[in-house]
Amino acid sequence: MFKHLFKPFNWGGTAPRAAFVVAILLLTLAAFGLPPALANLGLPVWVGIATVAVLNLLLFSVVVRRFHDIGRSGGWALLWVIPVVNFAMVLWLALARGKAQTAQDWPQRRRHRIGQAMLCLLVVMGLSRAFWTPYTIPSDSMKPALIPGDFVIATHVSDGDQPARGDIVVFRHPRNQLPYVTRVIGLPGEEIRMVDGQVVLNGQVASYIELPTFTEVMPAPGSGRLPRCKTLEAETALCHKDQRLEILPDGTAVAVLDIMPASGDNTPAYRIPDGHYFVLGDNRDNVIDSRVPQSAGGIGFVGQHQLIGHARWVLFSGQIAADFTTFDWRWDRMLLGL
Questions:
Q1: % helix / strand / coil in the chain, to the nearest 5?
Q2: What's this model's pTM, rounded to 2 decimal places?
Q3: Least buried of 60, 186, 224, 309, by fewest C-beta within 10 Å?
């Protein structure tokens, strides 16, 4: 019976009902018991996550072969990743009777090969979650680098992994503990201030090059938060903002947006404490960042202990219609490096 459990990459043949039930019970107990046990041993969290992913790999093979046993394609095993539906699937497989058949030809069927490839992809993604986390971008604060609807992949920050200037980081807000995504501009020990919308870093003023105007289509009223514009064309619903390439004294270059004179364009000089960073959103007039102190509901300095990850890529991007009937893909932002 256990032979059906320890063949994670053999998805041909069939698995009887009894083997499937035993596999479910064993792996469920292991999935709930092993991660806490590993954590009590002082091992990193990712070890427990990777362990659960491996257990799911073992179970996938049994699920696929169990579907074969009842005369179905192993591609049905993809239901395993859908919450609630997977419980119904387990009951289905546990109760269904096997069919008299020869299932040795399953690996030669095209639909089986496609299902097998998709399952491998899911397992690899599950394993990799020990090292990365997905985030969606809900606001305009990081335009033009990130726009609402972007699905961002962030790699985890390890102990001693310090971000560089210009890195886009994910961190927990010091007050509400929600994840925020923004850009590191100032490093520990440095002095930074804003003068007339320009960054002054350690007494040196950043230089600026004018870029083409940033233009976007204004969403229909009622579709969510509307972007702020410097100019708006009522006839075409085009929203325009000034765009500049900000070149910091060390050569780090960032495209930033400017809408209008704002209170954040001029700040006092800040001395960044050790172990902390000064972050600024790229959409400078439509963001709350380190220019706003925590006492006023802002972010203030971001501590190393608050960092979650480095934003690396836009995996995909799209905009959902207000009535949820359509999803417009932005194909030019697929697999976009940050």
A1: 30, 30, 40
A2: 0.62
A3: 224
**Per-residue pLDDT reduced to its tens digit, 70-101:** 877 777 777 766 656 777 888 888 888 887 65
Q: Is 249 left (phi over 0), alpha (psi -120 to 50) or beta?
A: alpha
**CA–CA distance, 328 with 321 (Å, rounded to integer):** 8
Question: In the beta sheet, which residues pair with residue 134?
Answer: 153
Length of the chain: 338
What's the domain range around 148? Answer: 133-337
Amino acid at 194: M
Both structure tokens of 237 = 């619903």
Are 193 and 149 contained in the same domain? yes
- Residue linked to tokens 């960044």: 272
Query: Of 89, 114, 130, which residue is a domain's last?
Result: 130
Cβ(150)–Cβ(137) below 8 Å: yes
Tally Cβ neighbours within 10 Å of residue 228: 15
* Neighbouring residues of 332: CB distance < 8 A, sequence distance ≥ 6: none
Bridge partner residues of 182 (DSSP): 169
CA–CA separation, 212 vs 141, rounded Å?
19
